[in-house]
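Example 3.2
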Amino acid sequence: MTVAVILLATAFVTLIALLTATAAGKLARMDNTSYPTALTRATTTFAAVITLAAVVTCTLTTLLA
């Protein structure tokens, strides 16, 4: 049961990160930036969301343990 919850949470965070990165890339392209710049902004946003999820998980683990 615990493994299923962890996998589901991981899939959910990855999906949210991908959607956020897609939105950031689209907004960058709408701002008339080049494709490499839009891709850089999208990957930076993806990494930021994954990092934020890791920090929140680590903090909650520390507080609840």
